[in-house]
Design goal:
This protein has about 325 residues and is of the alpha+beta class. The protein folds into 3 domains: about 20-95, Helix Hairpins, CATH 1.10.287; about 105-210, Immunoglobulin-like (Sandwich), CATH 2.60.40; about 220-315, Cytochrome c-like domain (Cytochrome Bc1 Complex, Chain D, domain 2). It contains 6 helices and 12 strands. The chain has helices at about 20-50, 65-95, 200-210, 220-230, 270-280, 300-315; strands at about 105-110, 115, 125, 125-130, 135-140, 145-150, 155-160, 165-170, 175-180, 195-200, 260, 265-270. The strands form 3 sheets. The chain has a 5-stranded mixed β-sheet, with no helix packed on it. It is elongated, with a radius of gyration of 30 Å. It binds dinuclear copper ion. Dinuclear copper ion binds near residues 147, 182, 184, 185 and 193.
Length: about 325
């Protein structure tokens, strides 16, 4: 009895190595409840009808104590519950301990989206691409409130709690796209906090990872840089049009190749090394007059930083 068919279609498609054991336990509990309901309620209704009070009959005194029967109905459920605990704990341990061969991704949850960071350091929002038949471990954190990472097809769900890391792992068994939901009420747009896990072949995954750090087909490095500039919200703080003032950070028009005055004196020559440092460690050199807001760190791969640099070079 290693498979109980899902005859009522209650559960989504199974797409991970964990799914079968979770579903088996679910179906076992479901059918145990159905059988017990029918037997107990059926017997009750039968006895209610058969032994109902008839006119002129007096109630009988309770029968003698039946120790064997009492022991039986105490220990039978105990054995059943012990078995359920054993099977549940087995699945839990399997789901809690990621294999050593897992590839690791960082997942950041914030109101109201999911961001995935690949082993290369590149980040993508909304879609996590993973290879099939390969254990994947997610190291998750929240940037604001409590969220919960839930992929029904993989039967995995784990809270993502501010101030700590939580982990979850899965090994996808089927190619395709699977929904990721946030399963913890986290505010106004909680219900639209989704993402996708796209399961691809190992070769497709290698190609995806290579291409993720290359300009998309038909785009120059600078055009890709312009997209990354917007996608990473750089434009929220940095103006890029000549003479436009009032940005939270310095206007970046014509900056590349110039000398930038720094807080605390001195200047820096704005080259690729300076741009790279300013992205990865924004507090290292602060342009004079821009001390009101601290820029947060951006973890971008070298090729993405080079693309942004190529874009900034065109601003002249
Ligand atoms: Cu995030 Cu609900």
């Amino acid at each position: 009895m290693d498979h109980i068919p899902d005859i009522f279609g209650q559960l989504p498609k199974q797409a991970s190595t964990l799914a079968a054991s979770v579903d088996w336990l679910y179906q076992f509990i479901f059918w145990a409840c159905v059988i017990m309901f029918v037997v107990i309620i059926g017997a009750m209704l039968f006895f209610v009808a058969k032994y109902r009070a008839k006119p002129g009959e007096k109630p009988l005194a309770p029968g003698p104590k039946h120790t064997t029967l009492e022991l039986a109905w105490t220990f039978a459920p105990l054995i059943l519950l012990g078995a359920l605990f054993h099977w549940g704990f087995q699945s839990y341990v399997f789901s809690a301990v990621a294999p050593a061969t897992s590839i690791e991704f960082r997942v950041r949850a914030k109101k109201w989206n999911w961001e995935f960071e690949y082993p290369s350091g590149s980040r993508e929002g909304g879609v996590l691409v993973v290879p099939v038949h390969q254990p994947v471990k997610l190291i998750m954190s929240s940037e604001d409130v409590l969220h919960s990472f839930f992929v029904p097809a993989f039967r995995v769900k784990r809270d993502v709690v501010p101030g700590m890391y939580s982990t979850v792992w899965f090994e996808a068994t089927e190619l395709g796209e699977y929904d990721v939901f946030c399963a913890e009420y986290c505010g106004t747009s909680h219900s639209s906090m989704f993402a996708k896990v796209r399961v691809v072949t190992a070769a497709q995954y290698r190609e995806f990872v290579l291409n993720m750090d290359r300009p998309p087909a038909g785009k120059t490095k600078a055009q890709w840089g312009a997209e990354l500039f917007t996608a990473n919200s750089c434009s929220a703080c940095h103006h890029v049009v000549a003479g436009e003032a009032g940005g939270v950070g310095p206007n970046l028009f014509g900056v590349i190749g110039s000398e930038q005055p720094l807080e605390g004196g001195g200047t820096v020559h704005a080259d690729l090394a300076y741009v790279r440092e300013s992205v990865l460690r924004p507090q290292a050199k602060i342009v004079r007059g821009f001390t009101t807001a601290q820029m947060s760190t951006f973890t971008l791969s070298d090729s993405r930083i080079e693309a942004i640099y190529a874009y900034l070079e065109t601003l002249r």
